[in-house]
Amino acid sequence: MAVTDEAIEKIKEMIVSGALRPGDRLPKESELAAELGLSRNSLREAVRALSLIRILDVRQGDGTYVTSLDPQLLLEAMSFVVDFHRDDTVLEFLAVRRILEPAATAMAAGLIEDAQLDALAAQLDALGPDPSVEELVACDLEFHRGIVQSAGNSVLCSLLDGLSGPTTRARVWRGLTQEDAVARTLHEHRAILAALRDRDAEAARSWATVHIASVEQWLRSTL
């Protein structure tokens, strides 16, 4: 094992074991290096690596702290990696969304509040019957984010937030090139919303699946 990897593992073990908790300040570099049996250089590299993935927060002139370890914060690293996707992997991102988003939508059916449903309906009404593709895609992102947030699972919400970015361009292209894409998307949004109002988890799951699968099907036919 490379010395930096060993240093990362030792810091990770301190966090996992509870020796370091969210918000804790790490001991001084010289003290921690001696405690873990590491060189200060390898410790410094480990701290730099762990700060990049939001495990540690290096505050200039103040010290190094364990972050909140909040799922949304930690999953920012995944979003960074996702930004480097290639066009030929968009289908794979859509396939993962098709697994996760219908499940989140079904979960939301029993938890979403009437005020949130009214806000989603108002959002759709504001679009009107003939929005631009860009307006529709922006609304689509907010519509699904609002539903997933209501599912009450911050990890699932963060995962889907990170996965939605790579599929945005596919949705724009579909709106520009497929004749009925805008009308179909609006219809599917209304159907999802109606299922949520009825507190019908399975109908909500089914419509969310149809909604994502239609983009996936179009993309397969164009690649």
From TrEMBL:
Protein name: FadR/GntR family transcriptional regulator
Alphabetical keyword list: DNA-binding, Transcription, Transcription regulation
InterPro entries, sorted: GntR_C, TF_FadR/GntR_C, Tscrpt_reg_HTH_GntR, WH-like_DNA-bd_sf, WH_DNA-bd_sf
Domain HTH gntR-type: 1-69
Top-level lineage group: Bacteria
Transcription is among the record's keywords: yes
Xref: PANTHER family: TRANSCRIPTIONAL REGULATOR, GNTR FAMILY, UXU OPERON TRANSCRIPTIONAL REGULATOR
